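Reminder to self: C-alpha cells first, then the designed residues, so the page reads top to bottom the way the pipeline ran.
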C-alpha cells in the first residue's frame, strides 16, 4: 500500500524565535515503512520546518541522523544533505543487528545547542531472520494496524482521499485491477481549504501492508532529567551548517603541542579531482572549513601552507551528539500472526539483493560530478601520449616546458612561466599530487613516471579568497590515492564520511 507523508509549503512569516530570542528549528522524519528485514535498505526523508509556524524552511543544510538500539547505542550514524527544505537518503541494515525496535533520531548542528527534547524521533522494527526468533511464537497473536492512503486488496487498487488539517490529498489510479509486472499510474493532487492546488513535498512508498504498521511511531521516554524545552545548553554554541557541513577543529605543533595560531592551512580531498580549501586559524589555532559537495567516504588532508619541520597534528571534534536524553524505542513485541508473512518478506529481501548485484545501472541518472577548485586547466598533458620516462623529474624536464625546477630558500620548488609575456612569476607555483598540496618537491620528483596518469597546468595567477598562487601544477596518479609519496610529519590524513547519497529512483531494465 502506498503510504504518504507530506509537508506543504506556504508563505513563511519569518523565522521562529523562542521567548529567549533564539531561533528554533523543527525536523520531521519519515521512512518508507516501519518493519524491515536485516540486509534491506531503509529510505529516509527529513523535512525541515520552523518550530513555531511549522512552515518549511531551509536554514541548516545538513541533518545528522542516528539509529539507536534499546540501550541508546548508535548502531548507524549518517548525514543527510538538505536540498531546499527537505533531504532524503538510503542506508542498508547490517545483518549483524539483533531483532528489535530501534529509535531513529535526527537533528541539526544548531539543534545541539538545545535539549534533546527538540530532536526529531521515530521508531522502526528490524527482524533478523538468521538469529533466534523464539519470541515471535510466545506473543499473543494479533494484527498489525495500518492506515493507508491507498489500500491494495489482492490485485485491485482502491484510492481514497485523506485530509490533514486544511490540506486535502487525492490519489487516483489509471485502472482498478492489475496483473503481475503491470505499470501502475497514480495521480496525486493536493488542494487547500479553498480547493486550489498547493505546493507539496510528498514521500510515497509502495510496501506490503503488514510491513507498514503505523502503531509503532510512539517512543518511550526515560526519567533521566526534567524536560526544559526552551533552555539553550550551557556548552559552547554549535554553529549552524548554513551552506554545508562545517569541519572545525584545532591544529597543533607536534613537538610543542601548542596551537598553530594565525596560520594559513589547507583542507584537501585525496583523489583525481583537486578539491582544496584554504583558511587561516585564529588566535587559539581553531579553524572552520565548509564542505558542500562530499558524498560517501573520502580521505582528507589538513596541513599548513608553509609546513614546519617539526610537523603538526589536528584534533577534530565528533560531529554527532554524544548525549542521550533518555528516549527509548517501545519494547519489542513481535506478532506471531506475522511469522508466515515475514518469511515471505525474508525471501523477497534475498531475491532483491541478488538482483541488485547484477542489475543494469546504465540507465541510472548521472551522479553529481565534482570539479577542480581552480576550474578549467590551461593545459592538460596525458602521459599515455608520450614515451615512458623514468620519474617526474624527467617529465618536468622533457614534456613540461612551461614548468621549471629551481631552488628557493634552499628548498626545491617548481615555477610556472606566465601565459602573459609581460608578466614574470618569481614565486613557486602551488603543486598538487592527487589533489593534495605537496611541499617536498624533491620527494615528488622521485615518483615513477609509470604511476602518473596526467598533469594539469594553470599558467596564470590564481586568486582564492585572500590567497594568490602564481600558477598551479597538478599531478594525478593512475590510482589517485596519494600512495606514491611518503606523507611528511606535517600532514594530517584521516578518513572522512560525507553525506549519504540520495538514490534517485529509476526504472531498471531487467
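Designed residues (510 positions):
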Amino acid at each position: 500500500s502506498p503510504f504518504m507523508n507530506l509537508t506543504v509549503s506556504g508563505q513563511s512569516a519569518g523565522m521562529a524565535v523562542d521567548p529567549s530570542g533564539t531561533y528554533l528549528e523543527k525536523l520531521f522524519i519519515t521512512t518508507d515503512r516501519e518493519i524491515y528485514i536485516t540486509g534491506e535498505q531503509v529510505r529516509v526523508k527529513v523535512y525541515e520546518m520552523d518550530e513555531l509556524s511549522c512552515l518549511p524552511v531551509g536554514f541548516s543544510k545538513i541533518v545528522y541522523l542516528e539509529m539507536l538500539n534499546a540501550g541508546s547505542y548508535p548502531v548507524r550514524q549518517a548525514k543527510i544533505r538538505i536540498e531546499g527544505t527537505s533531504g532524503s537518503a538510503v542506508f542498508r541494515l547490517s545483518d549483524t543487528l539483533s531483532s528489535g525496535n530501534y529509535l531513529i533520531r535526527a537533528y541539526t548542528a544548531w539543534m545541539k545547542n538545545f535539549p534533546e527534547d527538540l530532536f526529531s524521533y521515530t521508531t522502526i522494527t528490524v527482524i533478523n531472520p538468521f538469529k533466534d526468533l523464539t519470541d515471535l511464537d510466545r506473543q499473543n497473536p494479533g494484527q498489525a494496524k495500518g492506515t493507508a492512503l491507498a489500500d491494495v486488496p489482492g490485485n485491485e487498487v482502491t484510492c481514497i482521499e485523506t485530509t490533514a488539517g486544511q490540506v486535502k490529498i487525492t490519489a487516483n489510479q489509471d485502472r482498478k485491477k492489475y496483473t503481475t509486472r503491470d505499470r501502475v499510474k497514480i495521480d496525486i493532487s493536493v488542494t487547500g481549504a479553498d480547493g486550489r492546488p498547493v505546493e507539496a513535498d510528498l514521500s510515497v512508498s509502495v510496501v506490503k501492508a503488514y510491513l507498514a504498521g503505523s502503531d509503532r511511531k510512539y517512543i518511550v521516554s526515560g526519567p533521566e532529567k526534567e524536560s526544559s524545552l526552551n533552555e539553550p545548553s550551557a556548552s559552547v554554541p554549535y554553529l549552524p551548517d548554513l551552506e554545508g557541513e562545517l569541519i572545525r577543529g584545532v591544529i597543533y605543533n607536534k613537538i610543542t603541542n601548542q596551537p598553530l595560531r594565525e596560520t594559513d592551512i589547507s583542507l584537501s580531498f585525496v583523489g583525481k579531482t583537486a578539491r582544496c580549501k584554504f583558511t587561516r586559524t585564529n588566535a587559539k589555532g581553531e579553524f572552520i572549513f565548509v564542505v558542500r559537495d562530499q558524498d560517501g567516504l573520502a580521505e582528507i588532508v589538513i596541513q599548513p601552507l608553509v609546513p614546519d619541520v617539526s610537523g603538526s597534528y589536528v584534533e577534530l571534534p565528533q560531529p554527532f551528539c554524544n548525549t542521550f536524553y533518555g528516549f527509548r524505542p517501545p519494547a519489542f513485541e513481535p506478532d506471531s500472526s506475522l511469522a508466515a508473512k515475514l518469511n515471505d518478506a525474508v525471501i523477497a529481501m534475498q531475491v532483491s539483493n541478488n538482483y541488485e548485484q547484477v542489475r543494469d545501472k546504465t540507465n541510472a541518472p548521472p551522479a553529481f560530478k565534482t570539479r577542480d577548485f581552480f576550474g578549467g586547466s590551461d593545459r592538460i598533458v596525458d602521459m599515455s601520449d608520450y614515451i615512458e620516462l623514468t620519474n617526474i623529474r624527467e617529465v618536468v624536464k622533457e614534456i613540461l616546458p612551461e614548468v621549471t625546477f629551481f631552488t628557493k630558500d634552499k628548498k626545491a620548488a617548481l615555477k610556472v612561466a606566465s601565459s602573459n609575456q609581460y608578466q614574470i612569476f618569481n614565486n613557486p607555483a602551488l603543486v598538487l599530487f592527487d589533489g593534495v598540496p605537496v611541499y617536498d618537491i624533491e620527494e615528488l620528483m622521485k615518483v615513477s613516471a609509470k604511476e602518473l596518469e596526467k598533469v594539469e597546468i594553470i599558467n596564470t595567477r590564481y586568486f582564492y579568497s585572500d590567497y594568490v598562487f602564481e600558477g598551479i601544477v597538478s599531478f594525478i596518479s593512475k590510482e589517485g590515492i596519494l600512495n606514491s609519496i611518503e606523507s611528511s610529519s606535517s600532514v594530517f590524513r584521516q578518513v572522512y564520511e560525507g553525506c549519504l547519497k540520495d538514490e534517485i529512483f529509476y526504472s531498471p531494465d531487467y
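The mean pLDDT is 80.
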